[in-house]
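Case study: tRNA (guanine-N(7)-)-methyltransferase.
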Amino acid sequence: MSDHSPANAAGKPLFYDPTERRIRSFVTRAGRLSTAQARALETLGPRYCLPYRKETLDFAATFGRAAPTILEIGFGMGGTTATIAAGMPEQNFIGVEVHTPGVGSLLKLIGEQGLENLRIIQHDAVEVLENMIAPASLAGVHIFFPDPWHKARHNKRRLIQPPFIAHLITRIAPGGYLHCATDWEEYAQQMLEVLGAEPALENSADGYAPRPSYRPVTKFENRGVKLGHGVWDLVFRRR
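Here is what the predicted structure looks like once written out:
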């Protein structure tokens, strides 16, 4: 899955100067589109994909209703996103992803399942948060299996770092939640440390959280569990 880095090479927060050069935590890959993905982009993209703009998104106008809105950062191929949106029709969902095949895949699922409560933004999530999401407007944020950048020299590219979290939580309403999940133990430890150190967040569990019922177990995750690999969920609330 893709995700989006919060700091520049000097380790400074980047949310107050969008022109500042920064390290990104995703690599844009060309990727091959399947015929079905290309068709979904052409036929469903105009309806369900929101163009990136430097203006605040009106959730009620976007979805045609007022409802709690949840943002997912880096939805990959979109299977989990579609499952959650289908299981929670009373909520609005916005998925952010940079990779075109993933966008096409999720659009295909939206069409097949008739998911009217789901929209997509194909853009860097840092800029989406900065320019399109109003402060204290989100009921929740999902970040599932972001790239762990497991080599030590690449750790600086990881999404979950203090500057990013400090800005992200300004977009979550008081009482709203942040749900992260990873299958990389060392990254899970970093997540727990970073989230636990943020004074505006409160852990919903004593350490790692049980997997919430709304997050489905993916085929990849299930295969890893059978091989003895761990998966760690973290669910924090904004105070």
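For the exam, be able to explain this: The two ends are 28 Å apart (CA to CA).
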